[in-house]
Amino acid sequence: MPAAGADPDLEHRAAAGKAARSACSLPDHALWEPPADRSDPVDLLEQQAATRVPELVPIRYGRMVDSPFAFFRGAALVMATDLASRPHTALRVQLGGDAHLSNFGGFAAPSRDLVFDMNDFDETSPGPFEWDVKRLAASFAVGLRQRGERSKTRRAVVAATVGEYRRAMRRFADMGNLQVWYARLDVASAVRRWGSMVDEREMARLQKLVARALTRDSLAALGKLTRRADGQLRIVSRPPLVVPVEDLVSGDERHEAERWVHDLTRSYARSLQADRRHLLHGYRFVHMARKVVGVGSVGTRTWIALFVGRDDGDPLVLQIKEAETSVLEAFAGGSGYANHGQRVVEGQRLTQAASDIFLGWDRVTDPDGVVRDYYVRQLWDWKVSVDIQSMPREELPLYGQMCGWTLARAHARTGDRVALAAYLGGRPRFEEAIAQFAESYADQNERDHAALVDAVRRGRVRAESGI
Questions:
Q1: Do both 209 and 313 map to the same domain?
Q2: What gap in Å lies between CA 116 and CA 119, rounded to an integer?
Q3: Contact 374/138 with Cβ under 8 angstroms?
Q4: How many helices (H) and strands (E) does the chain have?
Q5: Maximum CA pair distance of the chain?
Q6: Fewest C-beta in 10 Å: which of 43, 60, 100, 388?
């Protein structure tokens, strides 16, 4: 934190942060009690289903009933509704919007370094900083229950995660603007920061994970997703998760769909930097397929499009994903963008240390005549996700701290880091309160998961499991 009296503006910003405790104190964050008029969680999920591809919605429910953690991943709207019902601060940042532990991971920066960052921004929008923190903390509580970890372990991991967020924010408050903007967590800096926390065996396992990530690129996607038919590259059918366009529509409808993705790719390029637009124009469209992705996103219109450059050994696979209204906007106000694809992309660029070079957006009229927003990115680019169910117990606090640091960096870039640091303070009261909240909300999540399971059992909604 800046020294008292060092700068009148800094003093004013720090005072504003401390004053925010009058509306929402640090102990207030510990409390979760469902309001008497709390919305039915299944009703909320059904509201989202109304705009999605009908035949895919049962897959979403099938994935969510699998476990309380799977439910949590798909229930961003449920938690946003709950967070909005509680007192919250006026300290606003660009929220990731769905900052649960599985939405952090590794991917390739344009510099071709493997970096650790948030990697899902479908719900990004401005809002109170603690909403991201609470979603991240609750995800650890829910996920560690699924592992069978005791309450003491769960609370320790959550406290480590949120404690690193608080300490990192206080360090960022002392940095210059450019220092914060350039801060990132690559492999080398992660080893320097946390390497002493793991032994040689665990370090070797992490190095193997990194090595695997470096193989997940467009060439790997080519080998996994495509085959050659009649001398042409084609995306392999794996229904219902991957369905080539010719298996969905035929004749003129197929040609219209292919023309649609070709036109979208050409028009979305306007959202790219000129040099990246030039690079994209060097690729030729080959094939497309509908793809089912994630848990909460299942049912949104998502396509993968295969392109080739110099030859068939020079592939590019783009994911074209529908962007709808963020679950946060009804509670925290609008994002400032009329195009939700742009909302996703600009939110990602603001909060990530480095973003995919092909990340962009567009608004188009779909073949069904409906105007929709989309964002586009590479399907794979050294992407690696972490599975905490198989992670050694000793690494759980390490992973939590990496997530906490990353979230603090995102918030420090987009909010008033001096005010945030002053609000959080120098003692561990914030993480203690959030650890208590996370346990209470994990209880709530279990009740909500049970409600969805019961809705499936009674035939209120249909679920397709194992997909």
A1: no
A2: 9
A3: no
A4: 19, 14
A5: 74
A6: 43
Mean pLDDT over residues 257-283, rounded?
95
Would you place residue 392 in the very low, low, confident or very high pLDDT band (cuts 50, 70, 90)? confident
Q: Are residues 120 and 165 in the same domain?
A: yes
DSSP states of 346-378: HHHHHH-SS--TT-EEEEEE-TTS-EEEEEEEE
Contacts of 111 (CB under 8 A, 6+ apart): 354
- Note whether 143 and 251 are same-domain residues: no
Match 């790719």 to its residue by tokens: 265
Question: Per mean pLDDT, which range of 82-86, 198-202, 235-239, 406-410 is the poorest?
Answer: 198-202
Report the candidate in 120, 99, 101, 193 with the shortest Cα–Cα distance to residue 355.
Answer: 120
Three-state DSSP class for 114?
A: strand
55 within domain boundaries: yes
Q: Identify which of 439, 377, 421 has the alpha carbon closest to the alpha carbon of residue 93.
A: 421
Whole-model pTM? 0.93
Element (H, E) at 413: helix 396-414
Domain of 270 in residue numbering reads as: 218-378
Q: Rounded mean pLDDT of the chain?
A: 91
CA dihedral sign, ordered 323, 344, 284, 213: negative
pLDDT digits (tens, 9 = 90+) for 143-194: 999 999 999 999 999 999 999 999 999 999 999 999 999 999 877 677 677 6
**1 Cβ neighbours under 8 A, 6+ residues apart:** 14, 170, 173, 174, 418, 421, 422, 426
Residues 6+ apart with CB under 8 A from 161: 136, 137, 140, 397, 400, 401, 403, 404, 431
Residue where a domain stops, chosen among 349, 378, 407: 378
Q: Are strands 284-291 and 302-308 parallel, antiparallel or unpaired?
A: antiparallel
For residue 358, the model assigns a pLDDT of 96
**Which residue, 315, 346, 378, sits at the end of a domain?**
378
pLDDT digits (tens, 9 = 90+) for 112-121: 677 889 999 9
User: Residue 239, preceding bond cis, omega within 30 degrees?
Assistant: no
DSSP state of 32: -
Q: State pLDDT tens for residues 32-81.
A: 999 999 999 999 999 999 999 999 999 999 999 999 999 999 999 999 99
Higher pLDDT, 235 or 220: 235
